[in-house]
Amino acid sequence: MKNVGIVCEGPTDYILLQSVTDYVLGSNNHYKLLQPEPNLMGEYGNGWKGVWKWCADNALIKGQIMKEIEPRLDFLIVQMDGDVSRKEQISHCWCNSNTCVLKGIRNPLDCDSLGKTRGGIAR
Q: Do residues 54 and 7 lie in contact, with contact meaning Cβ atoms separated by under 8 Å?
């Protein structure tokens, strides 16, 4: 039995990752959900932006975080759907374009300050 930490987009991903990990390792393991928070209303929220924000905010203190988790983790699984690369306007910013003119210049997580509308809806 291993202790496995999981950072993922949502509760369904967490359940699936538990089953896949148990199958691959051939045993029932102990799991610790690190992201998203169980109520999905925490500091990072859910979805790919929540995973990205969690990783970005914890990158410099990952050693400290890993030592503080009890029981101590044997593995850390970080899961983000592959559809992040799609050029969906809703995934990138608040501007009205499907193609981000700031791609490679501005971090998509900071892009919410670009405009006041998303899909024609005032925010």
A: yes
